[in-house]
Amino acid sequence: LEMTIADRWFYAPLIGLLGFLGVVATQIRINKRYLFAAAIVIILLLSLRTFIRTFDWRDDISINKHDLADQVNNFVIMDDLAMAYLRVGDTNNALHYEKQSVAISPQIFTIGHLGNIYYAKKQYRLAAEEYSKAIILIEKNPNGKNSGALQQYYTKLAVISLRTGSPTSAIKLLNEHALKQFPKDDIFYFLLSYAYFRAGDHQ
Length: 203
Fold this sequence. Notes:
Blueprint: H1 11-27, H2 32-54, H3 60-70, H4 75-87, H5 91-104, H6 108-120, H7 124-140, H8 147-163, H9 167-181, H10 186-199
């Protein structure tokens, strides 16, 4: 399996489970006093577990670090933790966990997130390498749900080319790839016009 299991996923299904147990209890003969006592014990135990769990929910970093201790090779939790660190500006820890996530399972989103971390650290060459890898994966497995990611990676690659003084690379990327995929994207046309300007073509 390539996904993680989180206890919060079971909150909604528990409603159905409790209803089922209630129906079963009405169909069999159980002393109401025992049934009530058992219900109280279960509620108390679940309440205690919920209270303990609140200490892990202080923030995204805390909950993911706690969960990662129980599931040390879970690439999804590592990715979530890396993004939590990136949101608070801790790019070093973000890079540490995202590299591990990609090493375990090089998915489109983990590779793209690694690119985002390198971009935030202004390591543009490494960022461009990761975005290019993610684009290759998307193009090998075309899927509408990845179109937003593809637009983002093309945009970042064009911006990197412009930031690193390569407007001709940006022009080639936008004309030959980005705009063929997204011919109505206003951001790509803006970047293309700016790239032409930077390249000295002011027409």
